[in-house]
Amino acid sequence: MSFKNITPKENGLLLNVEDKPSFGLNLILAAQHLLAALGGIIAVPLVVGGVLGLPAEQTIILVNASLLISGIVTFVQSKGIGAIGIRLPSVMGTSFTFVAAALAIGKSDAGVAGIMGASLVGSLVMIVGAFLMPYIRKYFPPVVTGCVVMSIGLSLISVAVDWFAGGNKADPSYATPSTLAMATFVLVIVVILVQWGKGIFSAAAIFFAMVVGYIASLCFGLVDFTNVKNAELFAVPTPFHFGLAFPISGIIGMSIAYLVTIVESNGNFLAIGQATHTQVTGEQVKRGVLCDGLGSALAACFSTLPFSSFSQNIGIISITRVASRYVVMVTGILLFLAGLFPVFGAVIVSIPSPVLGGAGVMMFAMIIVGGIQMLDRVSRSRRNGLIIAISVGACLAVTLRPEIFQHLPHWIGEIFSSGITTGSLMAIILDRVLPRDKEETVTDYAEVVAQMNK
């Protein structure tokens, strides 16, 4: 498939899930997924290494292993090997869901070895849970699915806004006119390319906008090459570098985090189905969650933190209308190479936050739009209105005020620390609790107006 014949299909996509673009086009399309995911993949090991006070060389081991294993799991998830992998464009990476449990274990006598051992044992929760997914799917009717997808987008918007304003609130350049101008510049380029771009310029709008933004940042001296100068050229992660320990309390904490991740992954897979115009079956979700669990076990063996699907890359699919899983398979290969060549990852990390934010605001907002479109197809009843209102409100409450659970038992904060998880659980619980036989179903807005006139 060449650059020239990329035209919208009947479903509005430029490339369907099974379409195979040419090598050059595939590389460019994969690069924009890499740009969106790399910061998140690296952030988790950097946070854990920094809080635990690990030496720089040990933190680098965590980072390199995260990239390497992320590449392997992303490739398997998108390609599929036997009963493993959802066979949809899903980028995998280290998850912040596990950070709280990891830090608690790391600060104990078990240390980093305890984190790896608890992650390895806890992964069994996800592996076993994968085989129950076809039964779990009944808890995700359209109204719940729409709330889950909206929760994903809403919980990520704050991340994009921080990127947009400069990344770190403590930074003097945060939300300065020049920072906001750069982010707005990138956002405008994305809008122009998506709306009026043709062929590759529309399909790779995120990539081209970020390249232009990076070049502009270079011209204004906004790029920090410190990490690039300090990065090694080549490094291979060592299995069991930190050893393994198995603290009981740590295993329990990690197991809870894995249960939460099952809910988040299910929501992400449904969101990918929405973005790719694919009906995701219970069997596909089972294969996807199984890949999550096995990938997390592999991550523990190679001395890094557990994995889950990345929400931000779903936004890229929605914006660019490129749903090819072969594109994300190449992204997996690029991530694998980045794990072997740390200097490559350091170059990507040098992209200024406003450049990421200009693209990120659009990417995450498109996930919200996907959720709204799904909810538009459910009946406009009082019952469904309650489910949507409470689940979305709960998601925003935790996202905007994460300290809301600070005076409650630790395990409560562990479960509800994510806006995605909180919103999703509220939607699932309300859907099971609120009675259906008394709901007053209204099929469209015309009927609502007619009733009001009466």
UniProtKB/TrEMBL annotation:
Signal peptide: none annotated. It comes from the Bacteria. Its main location: membrane. It is a multi-pass membrane protein. Pfam families: Xan_ur_permease. One of its GO terms (cellular component) is plasma membrane. The chain crosses the membrane at residues 34-54, 60-76, 88-106, 112-132, 139-161, 173-194, 201-223, 243-263, 326-349, 355-374, 386-405, 411-430. It is found in: Cell membrane. GO terms for molecular function: xanthine transmembrane transporter activity. Keywords: Cell membrane, Membrane, Transmembrane, Transmembrane helix, Transport. Belongs to the nucleobase:cation symporter-2 (NCS2) (TC 2.A.40) family. This is Purine permease. The lineage of its organism: Bacteria, Pseudomonadati, Pseudomonadota, Gammaproteobacteria, Pasteurellales.
